[in-house]
Design goal:
Elements (H helix, E strand, L loop, with lengths): L4 H11 L2 H14 L3 E3 L7 H19 L2 H4 L10 H11 L4 H27 L8 H9 L6 H12 L11 H8 L5 H11 L12 H7 L8 H10 L1 H5 L3 H8 L3 H14 L20 E5 L5 E5 L7 E3 L1 H9 L3 H38 L1 H6 L9 H8 L3 H8 L3 E4 L2 E4 L7 E3 L5 E3 H13 L9 H10 L6 H10 L5 H4 L3
Parallel strand pairs: 2-5
Antiparallel strand pairs: 1-4, 2-3, 5-6, 7-8
Helix pairs in contact: 1-17, 1-20, 3-17, 7-8, 8-10, 12-15, 16-17, 17-19, 17-20, 19-20, 22-23
Length: about 475
């Protein structure tokens, strides 16, 4: 089978999130001169007539899947009747209507310019980086020029956590200017005096030891733990530490508590510039008067598209064949885009509604009532291929009475409980977390014991499955969870 350009475009647009769709539409509006965003004001009867073309595409989209809608588009003559019909519509337009398209385009450009100007005016300044912060402090240090130059070079080569990943001899060799070992050590010592404490270290132990001061509580115990028993601390082997050091369990616990709460093995990570991506839902689910959950498309921020009346008139009256052919191709591209967007709305709404119909118990009672659901089940109900469902839910979010969720959240397999009912893996994860939260921390449950405990609740699972989900939930092993 040959994929037509129209079908490829429909599949691409179906997969876009609402923000990506808006960006795609903005690009098309800037590149295709015959494409316009509809005015919010009421349109006259002739404009309504042309909008019927879009409504027709919406109706066709409701009954036809993306895969089956169109496989091959004729390269010549396939849209002649459509163009003739559009030309007939444009024949009755007044001069005022003809110029309206130009005014809308001009207003849109002006509005976009104002919006971008406001955005730039309100843009926050770039946060100070770790290297800038360290260099700013180092400028107040008094040292010889050669030491200063090498120290600034070392600062620029610290990683995002403030670590020096190479040895001093290696850094000196790459530096390019001869530097003595004493000068290199002096430069590194000065860097380690900077804030935040711990910068300039080469490993976890050095970093933590640099943060221990004479005033630190349990200083001697902390130095011993960091220097010789860091792995035992990580594995919660307190009796081993007690036996080797002679410190009491209570003293060891107090020192570990201070270590975990006040010492940071990654002192530079607070300067990382992490961009938080805002999530914009594509659909919302609401209850109607009969208590049924229904889907509502959230497309108020997506421009409504139409074909420019001005260029339709140009297509009719311009004597230049090349100009006519250019406008004709642009109109064809615009129609394809409009129909693809309408197809996306229809498919997304039907897929989301099918998901909601399956997961009504989740919306009524919460996540512990989610049911196993496969994409093939939704595809069968909607009447499309399973890959269409996959594209429709990809990077899409739904606003529900229970919160904001990705549409993929509602899909997942399950297992058969002891009573014969199929149970979603999400419910089993919740039960596993609940069991661990309520266990006796002085005698935490091993993975074998967790298997037995889950079996008491009707969930018969293999040990490797329980271990897999325990790790997936970031639950430490029984040894690490034990409290002394």
């Amino acid at each position: 089978m040959k994929l037509a350009p129209r079908m490829i475009q429909s599949m691409e647009i179906l997969q876009l999130s609402v923000m990506a769709l808006n960006e795609r539409i903005e690009n098309e509006l800037s590149e295709n001169v015959v494409l316009e965003a509809s005015s919010s004001e009421s349109e006259d009867s002739t404009e309504t007539e042309i909008e019927l073309e879009i409504e027709k595409a919406r109706e066709e989209a409701s009954d036809t899947s993306v895969e089956e809608k169109e496989l091959v588009v004729d390269s010549e003559g396939s849209n002649e009747a459509d163009f003739e019909r559009l030309l007939e519509m444009s024949a009755d337009w007044s001069e005022d209507n003809v110029s309206a398209g130009s005014r809308v385009s001009s207003n849109r450009i002006e509005d976009d310019s104002n919006r971008k100007h406001d955005a730039m005016a309100n843009m926050v300044s770039r946060p100070q980086s770790l290297h800038e912060y360290l260099l700013e402090q180092f400028a107040f240090f008094e040292c010889r020029p050669e030491v200063r130059a090498f120290a600034e070079y070392l600062i620029q080569n610290l990683d995002g956590n403030g670590r020096l990943r190479s040895s001093l001899p290696e850094m000196s060799e790459v530096y390019g200017v001869p530097v003595s070992p004493d000068d290199a050590e002096e430069a590194l010592s000065l860097i380690r005096m900077l804030d935040p404490p711990g910068v300039g270290a080469r490993n976890d132990r050095e970093c933590l030891l640099l943060q221990v001061t004479p005033e630190t509580p349990h200083r001697d115990v902390l130095v011993t733990l960091i220097s010789s028993h860091l792995e035992d601390v990580g594995e919660n082997r307190l009796p081993v530490i007690q036996r080797k050091t002679g410190y009491s369990i209570d003293i060891i616990k107090e020192a570990i508590e201070y270590l975990t709460q006040h010492l940071d093995p990654y002192p530079g990570r607070g300067f990382e510039q992490r961009h938080v991506q805002n999530v914009t839902p594509d659909v919302a689910v609401e209850q109607n008067g009969n208590g049924k959950y229904v889907i509502r498309l959230l497309d108020e921020y997506t421009p409504q598209l139409k074909i420019s009346r001005y260029y339709l008139d140009q297509l009719r009256n311009d004597p230049d064949p090349q100009t006519k052919e250019y406008i004709k191709k642009k109109i064809e591209a615009a129609r394809w885009l409009i129909e693809s967007v309408e197809q996306r709305y229809s498919t997304l709404k039907r897929v989301a509604q099918s998901i909601v119909d399956y997961q009504t118990a989740f919306l009524d009672n919460g996540p512990d009532q989610i049911v196993p659901l496969k994409m093939q089940q939704v595809a069968d109900v909607v009447g499309v291929h399973v890959t269409t469902v996959s594209r429709a839910v990809d990077d899409k979010w739904i606003e529900t009475p229970r919160g904001l969720f990705p549409l993929k959240r509602f899909f997942g397999g399950g297992t058969v409980a002891a009573n014969g009912e199929e149970v979603a893996w999400g419910i089993i994860r919740l039960k596993l977390q609940d069991i661990v939260d309520n266990e006796d921390k002085s005698h935490p449950l091993s993975d074998d014991a967790l298997v037995e405990e889950l079996a008491k609740h009707g969930y018969k699972l293999a040990r490797r499955t329980v271990t897999k989900y325990r790790k997936g939930l970031n639950i430490p092993s029984s040894r690490q969870r034990r409290e002394y």
